[in-house]
Amino acid sequence: MIMMKTVANLGTLQQAQELKLLLGAVGIDSFIPDEISAGLAPFEFMNKVGIRLMVDEADEEDAKRVIEEEAGRLAEEE
User: Fold this and answer.
1) How are beta strands 4-10 and 51-56 bridged, if at all?
2) Measured at the alpha carbon of residue 43, what is the angle toward residues 52 and 55, in degrees to the nearest 5?
3) CA geometry: angle 51, 60, 38, nearest 5 deg
4) What order do you get walking across the sheet with 51-56 strand by strand?
5) How many angstroms separate the CA atoms of 78 and 60, rounded?
6) pTM here?
7) Distances from the Cα of 55 to the Cαs of 21, 35, 61, 69, in angstroms?
8) Are 7 and 63 in contact (CB under 8 A)?
9) Across 1-78, where does the E strand assignment appear?
10) 20 and 32 in contact (C-beta within 8 Å)?
C-alpha cells in the first residue's frame, strides 16, 4: 500500500503546480489532493493550512531536499 506524505503547504494552486513540475523534473511523482477544490474556490484555502503537495513516503526526504534547495535559490534571487 502506498503511503502519501505532505511535503509542502502552499498559498496558491499555481505555487503547488510549479513545485509539482519541479519534483517531476527530478523524477519524483507528486499529487495535489486539493487541486480541484482550490481551482473552484481558491479563497477557501487562504484561511486553512494551504494547498497540500504530497509524495510517496519513499520519496519524502528527497522531495523535501529539492524543495529546500529551490527555496534557497529563490531567496538568492531576491
Assistant:
1) antiparallel
2) 10
3) 10
4) 4-10, 51-56, 30-31
5) 27
6) 0.84
7) 13, 14, 10, 17
8) yes
9) 4-10, 30-31, 51-56
10) yes
| Cβ-contact 50, 43 below 8 angstroms | no
Q: Are 11 and 38 in contact (CB under 8 A)?
A: no
Identify the bridge partners of residue 9 per DSSP, sorted by sequence position: 52
Single-letter code of the amino acid located at 15: Q
Taking the C-alpha atoms of residue 20 and residue 31, their distance in angstroms, rounded to an integer, is 7
From the list 51, 67, 46, 60, the residue with the least C-alpha distance to 14 is 51
Residue type, 1: M
The 10s digit of each residue's pLDDT in 36-62 is 888 787 776 666 678 999 999 999 999
Q: Which residue has the cell 509542502?
A: 8
Half-sphere exposure at residue 65, Cβ-oriented, CA atoms within 13 angstroms: 6
Take residue 74 and report the three cell numbers written for it: 529563490
